[in-house]
Design goal:
This protein has a two-stranded parallel ribbon with strand order 1-2. The N and C termini lie far apart (51 Å). By secondary structure, the protein is mainly α.
């Protein structure tokens, strides 16, 4: 029997990515923040998250909350991309 190493390597790479996921306790917000963080980091923008409230108690439907947060984060990322300051001087605290 011949073992193929490629699928194992692929699974290990996926596992490493899961280790770095932000966990907010709210699946929809968690997915949004992880996606926006990856976009920001790919542009050299630091992305820091600190959850200081119980997101599950916010009385906004998940799609509405993600729409608001997504719009704010898109604007912040776009502003950092087009900023004239040197790369590395951009940070988005959430």
């Amino acid at each position: 029997m011949t073992w193929r190493k490629e699928p194992i390597r692929y699974e290990a790479e996926e596992y490493r990515c899961a280790e770095n996921m932000l966990d907010t306790g709210h699946p929809a917000v968690m997915g949004l923040l992880n996606t926006k963080r990856n976009i920001a980091q790919s542009q050299g923008i630091e992305f820091a998250v600190a959850v200081k409230c119980d997101i599950s108690r916010i009385n906004i439907p998940p799609w509405g909350l993600n729409s608001i947060l997504g719009n704010l984060l898109d604007n912040a990322i776009e502003a950092a991309i087009y900023d004239v300051n040197p790369p590395g001087n951009h940070r988005i605290p959430v």
